[in-house]
Amino acid sequence: MALSTLQKKQLVAVTGLGLVGFVIAHLTGNFLIFKGADALNDYAKFLHDLGGLLWAARIGLIAMFVIHMGLTANLVINKIKARGSNYAKFENHAQKPSFSARIMPFSGVVILAYVIFHLLDFTFAEKSGIINGVDQGLYGLVVTSFMDPLHSAIYIIAMAFLGLHLSHSLQSIFQTFGLVSVNRLNTIRTISTAIGVGIAVAYSSIPVYVLLNF
Ligand code: HEM
């Protein structure tokens, strides 16, 4: 059974919301870095010890990612085919689309590239990093990685794109489900931008903290 354009947009919105949930949960876990090596390493061990449950969550996450990207790519291609124009043109909008709205497909691709880099960087890497002559496991790996300013810069730039993507996401989800009236649009846009900027700044605080303290 083929999905309608609206159904595809709704699935993109629902999976996007799930991914935002992961981004917030992952951020709160990562904040344990500020508490020190034991806090982060114990948390990572706790997650790994979940075994089957962790894998169920990972499969759910991968499924959301694939559906979100696959349907978005499909919607973009169909729009280009139907209008013979660029996806960046939003002819029917009452207001001029924001910068974050115009670059949604691009920021999405940057996030995909970042996630691949990030998994190779931390998940598939040996969980080891020496600080003050002692191997501090996953904590050591993260801290020694961010001690390199170039490495930190790559993360901060990626977080800026994540922030831009999220800035438009929330208002987009509200619009997809018809939950926002025209006169509330500006309020939703402001809240959405605040959440995007807040998440980008919060994530970036981790490499900045390492650069300033190690
Ligand atoms: C400063 C920013 C970040 C830090 C310090 C960080 C840290 C980490 C660490 C240490 C791991 C490996 C955990 C382990 O194997 O035990 C990890 C895994 C992961 N991170 Fe991040 N992360 C950051 C940002 C992000 C962002 C923005 C995303 C998504 C857009 C993300 C997505 C993931 C995913 C999908 C995994 C794999 C999870 C799994 O193995 O189940 N991370 N991260």
Structural summary, described in words:
The protein has helices at 5-30, 37-49, 52-83, 99-102, 104-123, 137-146, 149-176, 185-213, and strands at 130-131, 134-135. With 214 residues, the chain is mainly α. The chain has one domain: 3 helical TM bundles of succinate and fumarate reductases (Up-down Bundle). The N and C termini lie far apart (56 Å).
Distance between the termini: 56 Å
In the predicted model, the low-confidence regions spanning at least 5 consecutive residues are none
| Rg for CA atoms | 19 Å
CATH class: Mainly Alpha
Helix-and-strand structural type: mainly alpha
What would CATH call the architecture? Up-down Bundle
The sequence of SSEs as H and E is HHHHHEEHHH
Mean pLDDT over all positions: 92
Strand order of the largest sheet: 1-2
Strand content: under 5%
Number of spatially distinct domains:
1
Number of helices: 8
Give a short account of the largest sheet.
Answer: 2 strands, antiparallel
Number of strands: 2
The helical percent reads over 70%
Q: Which small-molecule ligands are present, each listed once? A: protoporphyrin IX containing FE
CATH topology: 3 helical TM bundles of succinate and fumarate reductases
> So what's the overall shape?
globular
